[in-house]
Design a protein that fits this description.
Order of helices and strands of chain A: EEEEHEEHEHEHHEEH
Shape of chain A: elongated
Number of helices of chain A: 6
Mean pLDDT of chain A: 91
Strand content of chain A: 25-35%
Radius of gyration of chain A: 20 Å
Oligomer: homodimer
CATH class of the largest domain in chain A: Alpha Beta
Largest interface: A-B, 44 and 44 residues
Largest sheet of chain A: 7 strands, mixed
Number of strands of chain A: 10
CATH topology of the largest domain in chain A: Nucleoside Triphosphate Pyrophosphohydrolase
CATH superfamily of the largest domain in chain A: Nucleoside Triphosphate Pyrophosphohydrolase
DNA sequence: TCAAAAGTGTTCGAATTACACCCATGG
DNA sequence: CCATGGGTGTAATTCGAACACTTTTGA
């Protein structure tokens, strides 16, 4: 068979919006760009797709290069294809968001990329259209997390209820009544209370919980309703 | 500045999942593929992205080639990049879903593509990974329509409440109580009742309604809740 | 002993569900 | 006059929102 002659071919990159959570606030992992143009500016971690590689494969590779982690929650967001988005040569970018347990991130591995965690709220300006990518990623996560329990992917194995609540509050930029929140979360049956307490946050200490993995898998596709009501949603 | 040498470049296609609604059921517009491989098999309408063209631009062009329509509701779904998805040469495809008023579709224009509307429920098998694309498009529309009033894009200027209800029932593959449905819809304030009736569907006739365009624009981003409850959702 | 965060119940109103009959009309 | 689909109301329940005090303990 003949090839599709006469058609143009383009560079394809994947860019990862990598989120973490420090127990208080959402953070984003950024790198100092190593190549021209815009060398040494802050940027998303990305890379070109290789000939034999799927998009998901490329995203996983890129993520693993930076963090050393495998099996991370990674989901495609969308393709960006403005002809002028990269000034050197037309490049499509496919974005992915990654949710990682910030504690698993090995700093050593990232040294070559000059990576740094920023509070999502005050991340620096990024190159090209990366700021828009981050905006869209935030929006996508709000959507997804309103219906599916993905935010647990950001937490360590053991976490406390106040941490969990901080997480939801930070994602939706809202305040949640803690009694209502705990009732709702408990109703999902996704949490298993552990006998230990985390004493770092307070004198009284907060009980650790872990995720019921089986129920998590089983309920993942179920529609939940963690979504705050419109008037509580701050859409900035 | 230098180019990104040593990197591979790929063909990029856009493929459109085009939905319509005949007053009873959701339909999908398919074409008989004109080129090898898989010539004469049923396929989504698509095309290669041109050097100076944005992705949205390519999708609009492709859609307009087939339907003659401009200004159609079109939204990117996602990128498909399996290295082997096109047997001739590696091609990425970016999918878009289009919601069109089926009455505006001009058959003449499409004759060259051998296009045909199929009931979504019994569409034929499609080439490559197009079946998966359609599945994902259905899922995406369910998501989106649960929160935003996009389904109005499928209706003609004047439509009846039974038509609207059929539409939601077909999208979610469920039965909705008509009293509850109308109450909910009315509460949005999106509908304006017209003095005329559509007599084609019954002897009594059903009143026509039109969309309040201003409120539609204003409320589009607001979170609604047309989503049926989990146990009513048939997830096939 | 007190500051600081964790944890716990109840009440109220709104929203959702379930449910059944009359209406208008063309044939 | 009757078959067909269009249109309407109410009661019961569930769900979400609002709300404040007690507990624990390290400093």
């Amino acid at each position: 068979m003949t090839k599709y002659t006469k058609q143009s071919r383009f560079l394809i990159a994947v860019d990862c919006i990598i989120f973490g959570f420090d127990g208080e606030h959402i953070k984003i992992l950024l790198i100092k760009r190593a190549l021209e143009p815009e060398k040494d500016k802050w940027s998303l971690m990305g890379g070109f797709v290789k000939p034999e590689e799927s998009l998901d494969g490329a995203a996983n590779r890129v993520l693993s290069q930076l963090t050393g982690l495998e099996g991370v929650y990674l989901e495609q967001i969308q393709a960006y294809g403005d002809p002028l988005r990269d000034p050197i040569e037309r490049t499509l970018s496919i974005t992915y968001f990654a949710l990682i347990d910030i504690n698993k991130y090995k700093t050593q591995l990232s040294d070559q990329f000059h990576a740094e965690w920023f509070l999502l709220k005050d991340a620096p300006k990024l190159i090209f259209d990366h700021d828009k990518m981050v905006e869209n990623a935030k929006e996508r996560i709000r959507y997804k997390a309103a219906l599916h329990p993905i935010l647990f992917e950001l937490l360590p194995k053991k976490f406390t209820l106040p941490q969990l609540q901080n997480l939801y509050e930070d994602v939706y930029n809202t305040n949640i009544d803690n009694r209502n929140f705990i009732r709702k979360i408990s109703a999902t049956g996704l949490l298993i209370k552990l006998p230990e307490k985390d004493k770092t946050g307070s004198k009284k200490g907060a009980f650790y919980f872990k995720l019921d993995k089986k129920k998590y898998q089983a309920n993942f596709q179920a529609f939940l309703s963690f979504i705050p009501k419109p008037d509580k949603l701050i859409t900035s």
